[in-house]
Amino acid sequence: MSSSSSQISYKLYYFNAYGRAEVLRFLFHLAEVEYEDVRIEFADWTKTKQEMGFKQVPVLEVDGKRLTQSVAITRYLAREFGLYGKDNWECALIDSFVDNCQEIIEKAIVIIKTFEPEQRKKEIEKLQAEVPKEFEELEKLVGDNNYFIGDQITVADLFFYNTVSIVSQFASNFLQTCPKLEALRSKVEAHPRVADWLQKRPATSYTG
After folding, report:
1. CB 3.0-4.6 Å disulfide test: which of 114, 153, 155, 159 passes with 78?
2. What is the pLDDT of residues 115-139, one digit of tens each?
3. 24 neighbors 18 (Cβ within 8 angstroms)
4. Count of helix runs (H) and strand runs (E) in the chain
């Protein structure tokens, strides 16, 4: 963790949901950095979104300055908290892994934003057909380390765990042909700081 992180004022804006912001909350909790977790109720979003950059969340406020886009915020915090790679190559490997996970998340976001029953059913079936193959490709990127990069947890592991949690709302057994990824998911979940957050975080849903 950056020695100056504890002196910085952080405020995270997102819905009262897990979704795209949960990996950011994991990062704060792992780094043991205090922040204000501003949870917006969906009923208030029409009014509140006018105050947000690009009229979307998550938004991270750092000493009064605002940053948008969930993956950009994720990378920023990971660098600040020492949860990125040790060199440019490791950072590039993490970026590749995170970007591939993000593409999987986008398929789930399509479902969340689809309200017409028949079309929603089709999108769920599409996700269920496609994501096992995509996780099989991710499986090839995982070595024999405890985590994705070496023996220390990084943002790649947290982002992957959140991806699995989101996809699990619409599909099951998609890691059954991916033993390394299933082992990685279990290791992340068992990490003391992750387990602590999972136990104490407010109960909500992955919508958002």
Report:
1. 155
2. 999 999 999 999 999 999 999 999 9
3. no
4. 8, 4
